[in-house]
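Worked example 3 (structure in, sequence out).
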């Protein structure tokens, strides 16, 4: 939940002032999660939302050796064990976020933010290991990391993997609205799916209106569908299960 709060704050869904939003994201992201708001804003807001599924710009689509792009890599060991590596990696997304956050903060010399990120360990986990027996503290740590990773990963991958992918010169010829709609997938299921996926299920609407609070996205979805139907625009929507099957089918081609 804290990831979603930080995500929404950085999209200025709570406050219009970008600088204020950035500062307010630190307690949730840096201190509680040991995650860099600066890294997430650059990776997610600047690159991903602007250049969604553009091979040369959106680093998310380059994951797994470009398996979900038209420029697939050629790592033999990865091809042989692609299902084990890809689906198994879903349970390690949170640690991967932390590693990327620290690399970004160090390279960009974000010392103040790095300090808050480092405080996470003695103040949060130090307290857990101090008050709980070692075995119980380790169980809490591993369970949290595995559960949080799986929740984030299985929610995130339905957003854009298996959708259309473009090279930069092709993507630049598309309107911003067309690019967002053709490279995003929304999920069917109504309010339950909206709750379970934390609003990520209305991904097309989130990309069209990134500053819209998630509690308004279902209302926006109705308007978006009506606009798409009226103007003959494709609206890519599947059930969660269909999304995972589509992702797995693309993975087969790697």
């Amino acid at each position: 939940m804290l990831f979603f709060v930080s995500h929404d704050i950085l999209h200025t869904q709570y406050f219009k002032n970008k600088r204020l939003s950035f500062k307010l994201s630190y307690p949730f992201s840096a201190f509680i999660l040991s995650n860099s708001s600066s890294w997430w804003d650059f990776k997610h807001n600047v690159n991903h939302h602007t250049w969604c599924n553009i091979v040369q710009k959106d680093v998310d689509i380059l994951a797994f050796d470009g398996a979900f792009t038209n420029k697939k890599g050629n790592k033999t060991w990865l091809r042989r064990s692609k299902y084990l590596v890809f689906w198994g990696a879903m349970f390690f997304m949170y640690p991967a976020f932390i590693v990327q956050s620290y690399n970004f903060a160090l390279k960009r010399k974000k010392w103040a933010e790095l300090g808050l990120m480092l405080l996470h360990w003695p103040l949060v986990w130090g307290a857990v290991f101090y008050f709980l027996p070692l075995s119980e503290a380790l169980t809490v740590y591993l369970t949290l990391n595995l559960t949080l990773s799986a929740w984030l990963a299985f929610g995130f991958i339905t957003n854009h993997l298996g959708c259309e992918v473009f090279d930069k010169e092709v993507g630049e010829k598309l309107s911003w609205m067309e690019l967002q709609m053709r490279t995003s997938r929304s999920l069917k299921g109504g309010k339950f799916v909206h709750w379970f996926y934390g609003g990520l299920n209305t991904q097309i609407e989130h990309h069209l209106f990134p500053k819209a609070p998630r509690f308004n996205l279902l209302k926006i979805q109705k308007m978006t569908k009506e606009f798409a139907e009226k103007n003959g625009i494709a609206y890519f929507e599947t059930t969660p299960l269909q999304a995972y099957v589509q992702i797995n089918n693309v993975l087969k081609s790697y």
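Notes: The chain has 15 helices and two strands. The CA atoms of residues 88 and 196 lie 21 Å apart.
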